[in-house]
Structures are given as structure tokens and as C-alpha cells.
Design goal:
CATH superfamily of the largest domain: NADH Oxidase
Number of domains: 2
Largest sheet: 4 strands, antiparallel
CATH class of the largest domain: Alpha Beta
Radius of gyration: 23 Å
Number of strands: 8
CATH topology of the largest domain: NADH Oxidase
Length: about 270
Amino acid sequence: MMYVNDAKCIGCGKCVKDCFPRDIQVVEGKAVMQNKRCIKCGHCIAICPVDAVSMDDYDMSEVKEYNEESFAIDEEQLMNFIKFRRTVRQFTPQEVDEAQIMKIIDAGRFTQTGSNLQDVSYVVVREGLSELKELTLESLKVSGEKILADPNPQFEMFKPYAKLWVRMHEEYKVDSTKDKLFFNAPLVVVITANSDVNGALAASNMELMTNALGLGTFFSGFMTRASVGNEKISEFLGLKDGKKVVTCMVIGHPAVSYQRTVPRKSAVINWK
């Protein structure tokens, strides 16, 4: 439920104007929450000039007052930070601190979701990494063998990947240190959601936080591919409530350092 502290409310109507579901009215000089169409997006909390709005089922201690010195980011520095981001596949054996893991997850938790569904969940895999590797590599091997055995020309473009999946499985079975899936990283965070868009948006912010913490990460498309329709992987991850694997972040302390940004293709823009 959303609440207004009448003693604080000055009836300015800013919350009414910013409420997308139109669930707030000003009655006799005070904002009144209808709590009928509210999606708990928190815009009313954020915009109120006198901090008169609250909700009872979220932790209000997480709310922070805006301070330019703490909140504002120089646009050039932000752009350089984005440009300098690199996919990392070389990791040290050092474990990732739990406090760092929680900061990464919080970066996802505070990311916007459609209709404020907040449907994104996270599976942190540390102790069970070996099991997840085996399940994933087995799934990829089976898919690879099917593709290689299929004469249909439409699968021809996928055969290099199919051969790689089979070879990855074979090498790992002979020597488990030859990990071409997670590259011996100490941590995997699987992002699950009902909506692909919500999960992907969360993962993007999580990657930025990972880099801000001095860690390295890459998104494992192979693991995401292996999870599709795989009951064993779904059971291992504890997927339920219609959730699916959106992406998989492999995280660790980088064993490589980069010295500069890299170029990219020019943006394709259609001005109308």
C-alpha cells in the first residue's frame, strides 16, 4: 500500500502529474492514494518535495535523497567507461567477495522493468559450478551431435559451433581444468525473468557494476543456449513461475589488463 503523510503533504500535485496509472488525487489540499491501479513504481516517492509518500511493503530505508555530488556523472567519463569495457575470459583463482556479488545484484534489482513487474531473479552459482558445467557441456554436446548428423543445409552455418561444443565436452572430460565454457572463473550469476527485455536490461547494469568493482565478466551465450528446454538445468537452477534463463554472467578477477578502448562500426541511424 502507498501512503501519504498528511502532516507533511503540501498538496502541490506533483505526484498526481507524474503518476502514470492515474492513481492519485488531491482532495481538500492533500494527496490521496487510491491504491487501485498503482504499480508501485515509486515515482510519487521520488518526486515529492517534502518526502510525504511511503509504502509499507518495501524497505523505505533504501530511499536516498538526491545529491548532485554523489549522483551526477560527467557524460565524457561515462562514455569512456562504456568504451573501455571489455569481455574478459581470463580469470585469477581469487574468489569474488559476497559484498561485491550483492552490489552487482543490486545493480540489476534497481533496473527498470516493464510495468514495474520486477520479475528478474538471480541464481548465484559458486559451490555448484562443477555440476552446472557438466550439465551445460552435456547439453551442448547433445545439441552439437544432432546438428552434425543432420544433412539439412540450413544447419550448415551452425556446424562450426556444433564441432566446438563436442570438442569442449571431450576436453573437459579428459582434463577438467580445460574449461572453455566458464574459463575457470569462480562465479556464475544466471539472470532469469519472465521477460527477456527486463532480464537483459538488468544484466546490462550488472555488467557496468561488475566493471566498476574492478572485476571482469562475459555473457555466456553457450550456457543460455544449453538451458533451453533442458529439464536438468532448469531443476538445478530452481526455475519456476514461468521464468527462463535470459543470460548468464561469468564473473571473476581479471587476469588480463587492457590499455585502451577499441573502435566500433559507425552507428546506423535513420533520422525521420
